[in-house]
Structures are given as structure tokens and as C-alpha cells.
Amino acid sequence: MADIMMAAIDRGEAGERQVFHTGVSTVGQGGDDYLCGHCGRRMVHAMDLTRIEVPMVYECGGCGGYNVLPES
After folding, report:
1. Could you tell me the pTM of the whole model?
2. Are 7 and 35 spatial neighbours (Cβ–Cβ below 8 Å)?
């Protein structure tokens, strides 16, 4: 399990992508932890977001910042 810093984007960059509000905490069944690229908050715990097949933006439940997976 690794800590992965998300890539911060502006709201206008979300385009047609789905926006997922992570809320207080989003917890999975295994995988990595993802940190907000704006404030550093741990948004997603133990998930593999690379398996999600639709274009997605993740909204931080702390600061409201929009994030995407970092480029590999």
C-alpha cells in the first residue's frame, strides 16, 4: 500500500468527467491511499483507483479541491 499524491486541477478542467465527492472518507478493500493535491488530506483509503474505467475527478471532502490521478 502506497501513499499517492493526486494531481490538483481547477474546477474548469473537469470538463465532461464524472465528479466523485470523497466525503469524510472513502474506504476500499485493498490498494493504495490517495492524498489531495491541494491540501494533502487523505481522501481515499485502500483502493486501486487505476481500475476505474470512466474518466473521473475526485473532489476533496476537506478543501473541495478537484483532483485526478497523477500521470504515470
Report:
1. 0.91
2. no
Type of residue found at 25: S
User: Tell me: the pLDDT tens digits for 7-39?
Assistant: 999 999 999 999 999 998 788 999 999 999 999
pLDDT at residue 24, rounded to an integer = 81
Beta-sheet strand order (sheet of 66-68): 7-9, 66-68, 56-59, 18-21
Cell output for 21: 465527492
Which of the 8 DSSP states describes residue 13? G
Q: Which residues of 2-20 are buried (b: 16+ CB within 10 A; e: fewer)?
A: eebebebbeeeebeeeeeb
